[in-house]
Amino acid sequence: MSARKSLPTVTALGGGHGLSASLSALRRITDRLTAVVTVADDGGSSGRLRDEFDCLPPGDLRMALAALCGDDAEGRQWADVLQSRFAGDGPMAGHAVGNLLILGLWQHLDDPVAGLDQVAALLRTRGRVLPMSLSPLTIEADVIGLDPLAPDEVCTLSGQATVAKTRAEVQKIRLVPADPAACPQALEAVGQSDYVVLGPGSWFTSVLPHLMVPELARAISQCPGRRILTLNIEPADETDGFTASRHIELLAEHAPGLRLDTVVADAAFNDEHLAGFVASLGAELVLADVRMRDGSARHDPLRLAAVYADVMGL
To answer: Which UniProt keywords apply (predicted)?
Structure first.
């Protein structure tokens, strides 16, 4: 068997900076890689384009493409171009160059998947990028603590940008529409994977939404490959103050039928109940030092790649 054929086929699910972290690690150990990306972003450049053109929000898709660019000078230059934004105070200000490239190809080809594949071919990425659904979605969240005069009252927040920034305690999320169709190519990728990697990322707006798409949740649960969950380095923003165990508990509450094989956590983000919660999902807990060497709350791609390689037996 050739070295290429021995590489694992991996599908990574998430959005934003968390998915970029897992892709930056995974592309170092395989190029048989597919990213499945959330499509509920409604803020910033993505939100403006979504409103104006009734399209999928391109921002998280762009970030995934940039993460899959090569480590050579050309690859890094393309990644920088994709992520760069127009300056000034005119109508183009704030738009990411990559968002407009993606949107232009979507309009030209009239096919979101074909457009993303075209961008990937142009950039010579080490993997494919797909949306989790072919229709833009909205995240709704039930929260408590939004009104200081009624701290126990349950309120509803709507929109990814709003939910991501809230300081209220999120109890539960859902998608609108409630039963969106999954991208067929994403379902195929999950079904053909040796490993499915979920997380890290914003728990309520990047990780859990994949499990709110019924077809995709079933594909993840029924896939023949092994399922890996990657926890964040530490809680932040929408899960500020949550323990590692609470992250696992939320996953189980939103996807009660999901079983995992491995949960990867930074050694410092651990608590006395985590191993038990992980075991309840049928998984093994792998604790490792995967934080950036500068101490920031980000995953180090090389350290995370080494952990993934060990889990996959490479």
So the answer is: Cytoplasm
